[in-house]
Description:
This protein is an alpha+beta fold. The chain contains 8 helices and 15 strands.
Amino acid sequence: MHVYINSSLIPESEAKISVFDHGFLYGDGIYETMRSYEGIVFMLDEHIRRLHRSASLIQLAISKSSKEIKSAIHKTLKANSLKNAYIRLTISRGFGKIGLDPALCEKPTFVIVTNEFKDYPGSFYKKGVKLIISSVKRNLKEAINPQIKSLNFLNNILAKIEAKKKNAYEALMLNSQSHLAEGTICNVFFVLKKKNKAVLCTPSLDCGILDGITRNIVLELAKKNGMAIKEGKFKKEDIYRASEVFITNTTMEIMPVYKVDSVSYQVGAVAKLLHEAYKENVRAYLEKKV
């Protein structure tokens, strides 16, 4: 495997960055995770726009243009002979003397890692996955803006550790007001029945969550399919009384949930419909890009 570092493709065994890189020392940096289907990176423009937004919010000057970033991604995929791939693009503040001042770093470190995409187990989509609601609260949005897709992941890692101890696939986090926020690597949706009508619910951005690209697609697809939608502030009791639950992100797409804490759910019609619609959306996107 080859890794793209700054402007060069380097064999995996030789791919290294300095121990004085501020991404390593302080988690000072940003990233995007992408997925390619048949050599086409899905929603690439949207990922790059979000990358630039994250950079702007931490006052990090990206030395490459959007065109250059796209070229670097495609070069890395080609070098590794990959068409269906997981892509991780990381930009750190860069090499510099020890200290928090960003001015200590002259230029950012730019890294692209690609791996063959391996499908999630079919049972995850057929039967669902287990979640817990973590005791670890989501970072205050006033402390770390959730619109920054940051390398600072300790908050999420602590929640993930708790999930693993409870034999759960993922952890949902509450914010400081005990409203549902998001998972460690995903957004969450659930269906509530109101007056015999199904309402697709998901925490609003005000709850301190990342505006996931897959989340936005799911909301658009739900609207196209005439579903009632509510983005709002929800307590854990709301998800406990849901008829179905599912989680979303770039690689898993739409994954159903069979259990949250001690409450069980069926893999429901809404998740199935939206996942089929999502797959059709991907197919249409690829056709346009060919």
